[in-house]
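Problem 12. The chain below contains 237 residues. Write out its predicted structure in token notation.
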Amino acid sequence: MAESERGLDQFSSFNDFFTRSLKPGSRPLADAATEVLSPADGAVSQLGTIKQGRIFQAKGQSYTATELLGGDAALAAKFDGGSFMTIYLSPSDYHRVHMPVGGSLNSTAYIPGELFSVNTVTAENVPRLFSRNERLSCVFDTDHGSVASVMVGAMIVASIETVWSGLVTPHRKSIDIQQFGGAAGPAPKLAAGAEMGRFLLGSTVVLLFEPGKVHWSPELKAGHTLRMGQSIGTFAD
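Solution.
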């Protein structure tokens, strides 16, 4: 509560408290001109290279980028050979998700699915966990190519919210794709470190970068604790 922007008597509900904003300056940002920013408080689940279209999950488990992105093979191909990082937000973490790099929103895809827990034990034992759970894929056009930030729902997570469209209605039966920019109207532009969305309970963010765009910080390993805004890598281009 020492970091909360509001006092306990100023919240309208538990969810309002759970997704609370922080006092200005609580999460200093690294240099966004050269550094990739952590999008959230949490812990590294896995990170590495997208090999032959597959993303490593845990201990012999993997899934495809195409599955994660709702079956869009052309979009997934952009990230083949690129870099991924999976960040787990526990229920005790700050639950807003921010931009790892500045960019314009190109498209979103709401993808219906399960609501498995996303903790370490589940990740090790449920095949293709992050490509089976309900999720929202957000793709941005940036100075460093296309960047995907995929917000993966989890057990008891009732909804995901974004700053550009508000509540994403959960539990729909089909994939819902929205395009931004051009004939679709002005695309939302978000600066590095700006809030993009929030979860209503612990969950996961999967970041995807195109090949040759980023180098993850060498000290980061599975289980490494992160704070939103800290450097998690450098731009290679």
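Discussion. The chain is about 10% helix and 40% strand. Students who got a different answer should revisit the alignment rule from Section 12.3.
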